[in-house]
Amino acid sequence: MSIWRNPRWFRSSERQQQLDRHVRQTGQASFGLKTFDETEKAAAVRQHFERVAPKYDFMNSLLSFGIQRAWKRAAIRALAPQPGDRILDLCGGTGDLAHLTAARTGPHGRAIICDINMAMMSAGRQTYAPHPLTRQITWVQGDAEKIPFPDETFDAAMVGFGIRNLTHLEQGFAEMHRVLKPGGKFLCLEFSRPTNAVFRALYDFYSFNVMPLLGQLIAGSAESYACLPETIRMFPLPDELARILENCGFGNVTYHSMTNGMVVAHLANKL
Questions:
Q1: pLDDT tens digits, residue range 207-242?
Q2: Residue 126 falls inside a structural domain
């Protein structure tokens, strides 16, 4: 696909095809507009993030004009981690969310970053090495669809801008539900479709023209920065995602939209 083409937002029926049942029935999974064998998508995702890992944090700040930090701070305030909490940051990548929670949980708390991609975690560890909060953070390489921790381990679990990259979305949510303690808190921070049509048109142009160009010039991969907005267009909308979370066993599901719906924070509890 030409990176200059702006793919339309997926219809409801097409978004449903990204869910676990359809993936297992067909044996195929999408990553952006590319389709892979169900067993091969995880490798494609790993390769993608290995390419972008060295410049990941810098590019996120550049492409979002720095506002991604405000989104993450707002989401962590809503999660409201408590002193001493043990928190799982799934698909935690370079560790931004984990460090924000560590600042709130104090010296007796613990943030565990779990990510399948060692290159992303290595980049984050280098960035945060001098930071005093690093002592409260553990980095674990693991599969989000088979979280390597026992049942009822964590007081809170969160995933930021990573759940849409899983092969089996609902399995990932079910695993997060499994490792939460009863009453544990859950946060999913993810991109979504802007609500205003004019803003959405500007966002679409930026996503498929400016972002790939900057991705090529700075990170050396235009394709990587066209793929990311493609994945957003096929991800469930907020009300759809709320129903998925409820079906996975979560209760008290709410969501809060930011920046005209560009980003949505879903909150829930394990009942």
A1: 999 999 999 999 888 888 989 999 999 999 999 999
A2: yes
